[in-house]
């Protein structure tokens, strides 16, 4: 048997629903079978990480042990001390495995990624969140079993959504009422069905049937037009954007649906992002748990540090520097290639431009109309700006220009 990527094949769904059935029956009758939950989690992790190739599974085990040492060493230290540099060292240690994995393709060194396994980014976000909230005092206590359960919650393990520890704990420590759980089952079923449509019908149409053909057509214009810019490239931009959304949103819907079946209200990751009226609104709707994680644990903390240290007095300059830092980190997180970094810079510039426009609009609100037409125009402009950023993100321009 080969390792099975979550939500990628009928076999995975069959294994999943067989294992979920006792959990569903238990919750319907007001019971959480915690020993069985552990058993089901282990089996799903074995299917995912210990199939034909166990290297990912072994890496996962070493990773979890490493993060436990870092988190609980810092937890013990934090009881009586709160030194900034010790806290920073704990955060750096927590992200080192992810840094190794991200550097592996750049250095082309197969030995560096000891911790290479599917989903390491999302587990790292969870571990870092716990360290940061231990420092803030918002997490007072956490047991090793709670840490492992939070980290290895299998519906979201490979690609999120990224839950928060305290919110997650509230769900897993209680049993929802029968009425509440029936509502979760209904909502989860709807999300599961929508996920099937998104990922296996629309995602398949745009990504498997349409994208390769549009890609070949766009590449055929590579030497015929300046920089290969053609209507076929525009078609690729829109096709890839649709594929990226439906594939990822479909996966996220599966993760949230399975969480609901387990009595856990994992937060949604997408909220009609192509209806955004500006780029800030887009990041409040697209990959929500990731963008909010970066906002809360990087952007806001950087702004607070700059204010506390009085490095910069001008609030606009401070916000702009925060955007550049935030989106550069997000770009590097996706990978160390030029198009991911440019993607990050592009969105930082878009956020800075958007803020400047909103300030201008506020000063001249009497002269600038606001109606259904201007809202539709704002949605149209935002949609195209976002799709262009996805063209950069796709790496297709790298193939077109340098391939």
TrEMBL record:
Hydrolase found in the keyword field: no
EC assignment: 2.3.1.-
Transmembrane segments: 12-30, 35-52, 58-77, 84-100, 106-125, 243-263, 316-333, 339-357, 377-397
Domain of life: Bacteria
Functional pathway: Cell wall biogenesis; lipoteichoic acid biosynthesis
Pfam families, alphabetized: MBOAT
Annotated compartments: Cell membrane
GO terms for biological process, alphabetical: lipoteichoic acid biosynthetic process
GO molecular function: acyltransferase activity
Keywords, comma-separated and alphabetical: Acyltransferase, Cell membrane, Membrane, Transferase, Transmembrane, Transmembrane helix
Cellular component terms per the entry's GO annotation: plasma membrane
Annotated InterPro entries: Ac/AlaTfrase_AlgI/DltB, DltB, MB_O-acyltransferase, MBOAT_fam
Membrane-topology descriptor: Multi-pass membrane protein
Broad class of the protein's primary localization: membrane
Membership in a protein family: Belongs to the membrane-bound acyltransferase family.
Function: O-acyltransferase that catalyzes D-alanylation of both teichoic acid and lipoteichoic acid (LTA). D-alanylation of LTA plays an important role in modulating the properties of the cell wall in Gram-positive bacteria, influencing the net charge of the cell wall. Catalyzes D-alanylation from DltC carrier protein.
Name of the protein: Teichoic acid D-alanyltransferase
Species in which this protein is naturally found: Companilactobacillus nodensis DSM 19682 = JCM 14932 = NBRC 107160
